[in-house]
Amino acid sequence: MPDIRPPDDAARFALTPRQRRLRVVTLTVLVLVGAMVAVGVRAPFFRSAGSPAVRALAREALVARRGNRSVRPAALRASRAVRVRLIAIYLYWTCCILLTTSLFVLAWLDMREVQRKLARARRDIWRGIAEEQRRRRPES
Question: Which of 18, 20, 17, 23 is nearest to 103 (CA)?
Fold first, then answer.
C-alpha cells in the first residue's frame, strides 16, 4: 500500500508568511501596551493631581467664571494647563485601550489564517485520497 502522506510533515505545521507577520505585529503591540500601562501606572504625571498652586489657581478661575467676574491671567493659564493635562491623560489611556482592542482583532486574524491553513490541509488530504482511489480503480 503506497504512502499517501505528503513528503514533508514539518512543512504542514510551518508558519505562513502572513501568520509570522501577524504574530510579530501582535507581539509588538503587546509589548507596547505593557510599556504604556507600566508608564501610566508609575509616572507621577498620571498619578498625581498636579501642583497644589496650579490647582488652586484653576479653581479660582472656575469660581470667577461661574460668578461672572474677571479672571486673573495666571488663573486662566492654570485653568488651561489643567485642561491640557487632563486631555493628555485621556488621550494616553484611550490610545492604550485602542491598542489593547487591536490585540483582539489581530488574534481573530491569526485564528482565521490558522483555519484557512487547516482547510487547505484537509482539502489536500481528501485530494490525495481521491487520487489514490482513482489509481487503484481498474480502468474499464
Answer: 23
Residue 26's Cβ-side half-sphere holds a number of Cα atoms within 13 Å equal to: 15
Residue labelled with grid coordinates 498652586 = 53
What integer pLDDT is reported at residue 5 of this predicted model? 57
Neighbour-count burial of 57, counting CB atoms closer than 10 A to its CB (0-12 exposed, 13-18 middle, 19+ buried)? buried
Helix (H, G, I), strand (E, B) or coil at 140: coil
Q: Which residues contact 125 (CB under 8 A, 6 or more apart)?
A: none
Q: Compute the distance between CA of residue 67 and CA of residue 14 in angstroms, rounded to an integer.
A: 70
Give pTM, 2 decimals.
Answer: 0.71
Does residue 2 surpass a pLDDT of 60? no
Average pLDDT of every residue of the chain: 87
First vs last C-alpha separation in the chain: 22
